[in-house]
Write a structure and sequence with these properties.
The protein has 3 helices and 6 strands, in the order E-E-E-H-E-H-E-E-H. It is an alpha+beta fold. It has a single domain (4-134), classed as 2-Layer Sandwich (60s Ribosomal Protein L30, Chain: A). Strands 1-2-3-6-4-5 form a 6-stranded mixed β-sheet, with helices on one face. Helix 1 (48-65) packs parallel to helix 2.
């Protein structure tokens, strides 16, 4: 089955040579999203809670384009600039994943200037959404 590029619907500037997500065989691989202003490409300053909410809102938009929700996420990888922010990050993250939460890895990383968090996810696309994205338009 062919790979399908999924684009962020609101992103107006390029921030690198990558796809927002790639859909293949019913699996959606969402690239790392951060607290970025999608019209300028600049980091939006804020607390770890504010940056986590903005980052996850970007993840949610990409999931939506592919026909998914946060409930379809099975794995996430979270990068924190400062691991001491973990508890505050985790409380905010939990708001987006009620019910069965995805498997997750959280690590401290050397993120760019002003960026406190970056998150990528893998989701299982519901079968009807998967067919919609991969079937040729008639």
């Amino acid at each position: 089955m062919a790979k399908v590029e999924i684009k962020h619907p609101d992103k107006k500037v390029s921030t690198g040579a990558y796809s927002a997500a790639v859909l293949i065989d019913g699996w959606l691989y969402v690239s790392g999203q951060g607290p970025i202003d999608l019209t300028t490409g600049k980091v939006v300053a804020g607390t770890i809670e504010e940056q986590t909410r903005l980052t996850l809102s970007h993840v949610g938009k990409v999931l939506e384009v592919a026909g998914c929700t946060f409930a379809d996420v099975v794995k996430s990888t979270c990068h924190l600039k400062d691991i001491r922010d973990f508890d505050r990050f985790d409380s905010t993250y939990a708001e987006f994943f009620p019910g069965v939460r995805p498997a997750r890895t959280t690590v401290q990383s050397g993120l760019g200037e002003g960026m406190r968090v970056e998150i990528d996810v893998i989701a299982r696309v519901p079968s009807e959404a998967h067919l919609e994205k991969t079937q040729p338009k008639m």
